[in-house]
Structure formats: C-alpha cells, structure tokens
Amino acid sequence: MKGGWRQAAFAAPGFVLLAFLAVPLLALVVTTSPSELASGLAHPLVGPALWLSVETSVISMAIVVACGLPLAWIIARGQGRWASVVETFVALPIVIPPAVAGIALLLAFGRSGPLGAAGLPFTTAAVVAAQVTVSAPFFLQSAIAGFRKVDPDLILVARTLGASPVATFFRVTIPLAWPAILAGLGLAWARALGEFGATLLFAGNLSGRTQTMPLAIYAALESDVRAAQALALLLAVAAFGLLLLLRLIPTGAR
Amino acid sequence: MSWSVRLSGRLGDLDLSLAFESDAKVVCVVGPNGSGKTTLLRAIAGASLPVEGHVSVGERLLLDTTRAIDVPPEARRVGYVPQGFGLFPHLTVGDNVGFGARDDVHDALERYDLLAYADRPVSALSGGERQRVALARAVAMRPACLLLDEPLSALDAQTRRTTRKDLAAYLAAEAAPALVVTHDARDVRALGAEVVAVEGGVVVQQGPWTDLAEGPASAFLAELFDADFVASQQ
Cβ of A158 and B47 within 8 Å? Predict the structure, then answer.
C-alpha cells in the first residue's frame, strides 16, 4: 500500500503537466458548437488566410526540399571540421526566437540592407522567406540523420553497377533515407504553417497578401473571437494530421 | 597478368602498403581482422580512399595515381559484393539483379536459380539465397572481375558447406577473375585458389594454398591452416 502511495506521489507532477497540455486543446474544441464554428469559418478573414497559408507553405516546402536535399547530403557526407560547423549553423534557427529571425530578415532584405534590391519585405514572397528560414532546419536535421544511416557499401555497389553519382542518389540514397526525409518534411511543414513572429515582422499582417492563418487569428481576436477559434481549430487539426502521418511512416525498409 | 595491385596510404590506424601480382583466376585474400582486406577490395572497386598506387585487372587499368588516372566506379566494371552482400533493401530480387544488368535479367536469375524469387523483396530471403542474388547481380553487368568480401561468413554452418561448393562452381563457370576475401581455410581449399596473405596492411606471403599450408610465414597462417587440418580430420 505504501509503495502504491509513493508511486502515485512520483507520477502526480507528470499528470499535472499532462492536464496542463491537454486542457487548452480540449477547451479549443468543447467551447464551440458546430453553428458557431460555421459562422466563424464564414468570417471574411478566414478564407484568404487559409488559402494563403496553404499556398505559401507548399511553396516553402518545395524550396526546402529542392535545396535541402542536396545540402543535407553534402553535410552528411562531409568530413572534418567544416561539415560540423555548417551543420551547427543550419540548426541555429531552431533555437533562435522567430522575432530575431524576422528582424534579421528585415535587416538583410530591408531597403538599406545588402539584399534590399530584391524588394522582399511586406510581400507574399516575404512570408515564404520567413517560413523557409524557420522550417528548413527541421527538414535538414532529419534528412542529414537519414542520409548518415545509408550504408556506404550500398552506394559503392550502385556505382560499380554502372550508376553515376546522381543516379545513385535518386535510385538508392533517397529511397533508403525516405522515412527520415518524410519525417523531416512533416515537422518542417508544421513549423511553416504555424510561423508567426518572423512573418509579422518581415512580411506584416496584410489580408490576402501576407496574413497567414496564425496572423489571422491574431487579427480576428480584435473583432470576432469565433473566427479566431475556428482558425485555431483548423490549424490544430492540420498539425495533428501531420503528426499522425509521421507516426504512420514505416521507420525503416530493412 | 590478371591482377596487378600496388597500393599505399594511411587509413586510420592502418599503414597500408599492399603489392601483389597474380595470374590466378581466383585469388583468396586472407588475414586477421583489420589487416586491410576490405580496404583492398573497396580500393579496387573505386571507393574514394586516401590511397596512392596502381591497380590493373587484366587489360584494364583502373588506378594510376602517378598519371592522375582514377577510373570512377561506374566505369571500372568490377562486380563488387561487400560483406553482408549489399543488396538494395527497397528493391525486389529481380530489380536488384536488373540494377546494372547488361545481360538478360531472366537469364541471370535462371542461372543462379532465382527465377521463383524474382518478385520477392530481398528481406524475405535466406542467407544462401541473398548470396546468390548478390552474385547474379554482379555477373549480370558482365564485370571484368569479381570482388567478394567474405561471401560465406554471413551464413550458418550448414548452409555454408553447400554454398561453398556452389560458389566454387559459379566462379569456375564465370569468365571474370575473382578476388575473394575470407578467413576460413576451407573456402581457400574449395576454391582451389592462389592465396595472398595480408597482415597489418602488407602482403606477408603469396602462393598456392598448398604451399602456404606447408610453410606458413606467420603464426596467423599457421593457425589458419592448422585449424583447417584439424577440422578435416574430424
């Protein structure tokens, strides 16, 4: 009996944390009704924000994958000091606050910045830039780990069987690292969909142009809480869907 | 000359300084773990390693660092079978054999008794079957030579005996010369091979296996062939 009491005392803080994590999410669902949800979704802020979030995050992920795969491969194969320096550097945005990333982007691409000629700030392209900045590290980390696990002997075998380095990359390396690549994509996508701070500072909060779903939640709070809640629910469902998808990915082909 | 190899370089703890020439069709490379056997095969296959020297197989010059010649793996035409066979786990048996095939895949599968397995994933195969897939895949690209790294060590004792006989027959039937890494004297005997003995990155003895068994140049070789003799008496 005494042991059971001790176990309960040990577990109690864990359950407090679990409740703390679960209650707000439950509140998001139970404090609304289907009719309120419907009227929230009909709010004029919702449609453009939803569409913009889908559009920008898809473009961001295309950029992250197209540029991230080769970079991850180079870092994974790289030896010595420079490879670990680059690897640490590309992981930096994970720990840097989004507001800092936003200011840094603004300073780089602002009118008087070194890349000011691009005219990026406060455009839809700036939304994509902010999303790529904050989400790419999640993709890179996972892809690098996936590539590192590919047996170098399999790559050498593919080469001796006549495949060029590029053909080997697409026919052997990517299929073998696929679960890790997909997991990284899921994490990066969730991060891009949720991007708020860097977007607000670098792209602003213009409906239809730079106002993604998280920014629309912020804007809707001032006028219509139901719209904010509907958007929040949509985002939560999307995030949960991505998480579920990640869990369903087989962890290895072997 | 079937084989002409001269390689040197520092790889981790190992000071490699390997040189041998041989006209034998099947050459067995023996030696203790970490002596440079696998490195030798990988270097001949074309892995990017910090080595210098010269490698030619038959008429084909694969590496000559003094003339800045380093043929990339895809142009070397070596049938490389690494330890554990190196099968592509995401492909079927048929797609593995067809990966770089110049020969008809159906013929290759048939020759190695794999037709019934063509559509199976390689994970569903036994050790002996996996070895046949690796061999079939290597020979289907019509290699100028075969490089087999411990082709029998991943098998259980019973499979090993029959597979050893099969391997000897396959290698005899193929036109390409083969370099076989092993640390089992029974493999050497079954393959009727010339032996190159490697220890600590250098060749310590070379010759027909009967010569090495009679006058082994090192304690490792003495034990290798002694254990074999004892095993053959049982």
Answer: no
